[in-house]
């Protein structure tokens, strides 16, 4: 497996987001990572979809590791910000975080 710098998990199930918005976000994520040069190479961000991340409200839900940052109510516009500000530039989008694992 190719090395990666971060791992993004997106809930694509229907419990946290009735319209299953996570499915569209998961597809959009690949395009955004490619655009920012994060889909392949030394700064690669691995992406995974999950049928449930255990948060059954306020979705779509997205988690970024190794930081342990969890975002809720992720929209296409917010996903774009997360990719640029957090995944590319290393600064989490603080106002969108609903949970953070203690370091």
Which key features would you list for this structure?
alpha+beta; 5 strands; 103 residues; five-stranded mixed β-sheet; 22% strand; Glutaredoxin; 2 helices
Compute the number of helices. Answer: 2
Percentage of residues assigned to helices: 25-40%
- Order of the strands making up the biggest sheet: 2-1-3-4-5
Q: What gyration radius follows from the Cα positions, in whole Å? A: 13 Å
Quick overview:
With 103 residues, this protein is an alpha+beta fold. The protein has one domain: Glutaredoxin, CATH 3.40.30. It contains two helices and five strands, in the order βαβββαβ.
Descriptive report:
By secondary structure, the chain is of the alpha+beta class. The protein has a single domain, classed as Glutaredoxin (3-Layer(aba) Sandwich), CATH 3.40.30. It contains two helices and five strands, in the order βαβββαβ. It has helices at residues 21-35, 76-88; strands spanning 6-11, 45-50, 62-65, 69-71, 97-100. The chain has a five-stranded mixed β-sheet with strand order 2-1-3-4-5, covered by helices on one side. α1 (21-35) crosses α2. The N and C termini lie far apart (26 Å). The mean pLDDT is 93.
């Amino acid at each position: 497996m190719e090395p990666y710098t971060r791992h993004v998990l997106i809930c694509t199930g229907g419990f946290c987001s009735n319209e299953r918005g996570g499915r569209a976000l998961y597809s959009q994520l690949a395009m955004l990572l490619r655009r920012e040069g994060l889909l392949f190479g030394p700064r690669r961000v691995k992406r995974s979809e999950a049928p449930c991340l255990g948060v059954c409200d306020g979705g779509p839900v997205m988690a970024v590791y190794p930081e342990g940052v969890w975002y809720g109510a992720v929209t296409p516009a917010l996903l774009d910000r997360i990719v640029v500000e957090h995944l590319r530039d290393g600064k989490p989008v603080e106002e969108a975080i609903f949970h953070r694992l203690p370091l």
